[in-house]
Each structure stands twice: as structure tokens, then as C-alpha cells.
Amino acid sequence: MLKCKTRMPIAIVAAIVAVGLGAAAPAAAQTATTTTSTAATTTAKPKRTPTPGQLAARERQKKCAAEWKEAKAAGKVEKGMKWPQYWSACNKRLKGAG
Questions:
Q1: Percentage of residues in the chain with pLDDT exceeding 90?
Q2: Crossing angle of helices 83-97/52-74, nearest 10°?
Q3: Mind listing the pLDDT tens digit for each residue in 28-61?
Q4: Fewer CB in 10 Å around end: N or C, the chain?
Q5: Which residue, among 29, 42, 46, 90, has the nearest Cα to 64 in the 3D structure?
């Protein structure tokens, strides 16, 4: 018996079975594929609208990103500072100003 570290999708398994059984199996393989594809589309959730806090955070991030790009291009970023540290400081500064 062969051992496989990854699982094969049901469509591939169905195709292998179809080849082994002849002409009767392709109809069953297509039914299995159709069933799995319709199940995936019906479980998709609609997207929620962002909250006012999320919108404000996105605006702060955009402003901080623009400042970061300008400061980095001008060579004004402290040595060793990376984006996460800059974002943290900038976010606190903009939250306090608003």
C-alpha cells in the first residue's frame, strides 16, 4: 500500500477511479465534483462594512506610510528603525492628536 503525505482532491481520486472502472465512472466523478463546488459557493459569507474605528485606523496607516516613505527617502529615519516601530510611534502620535 502506498503512503502519501498529501491528500488528493476528490476530483483527482474520482478521475483515477473513472479510468479504472471504464465509462460508467465519469458520470459519478462529475457528480462528486459538482456537489463539492456548489457547497463551496453557498458557504461564502457576505463582506461586512468596516467600523468607524477600522476606517480611522486605515487612514492613520495611510498617513504614516506616506510619512515613512518621505522620511526614508530623505534619510531622516533613525538607524535600525523598521516600519513596525515607526508605525507604532506614528499611530500613537496621530491618535493623541485626534
A1: 52
A2: 120
A3: 555 555 555 555 567 888 999 999 999 999 999 9
A4: N
A5: 90
Helix, strand, coil percent values for the chain (each to nearest 5) = 70, 0, 30
Cell triple for 31? 457528480
Average pLDDT, the chain: 79
Q: Are 10 and 36 in contact (CB under 8 A)?
A: yes
Which set of grid coordinates corresponds to residue 85?
516601530
Q: Are 32 and 10 in contact (CB under 8 A)?
A: yes
Instruction: Output the CA torsion sign for 60, 61, 66, 71.
Output: positive
pTM > 0.70: yes or no = no
Sign of the Cα pseudo-torsion (72, 75, 78, 80, in order): positive
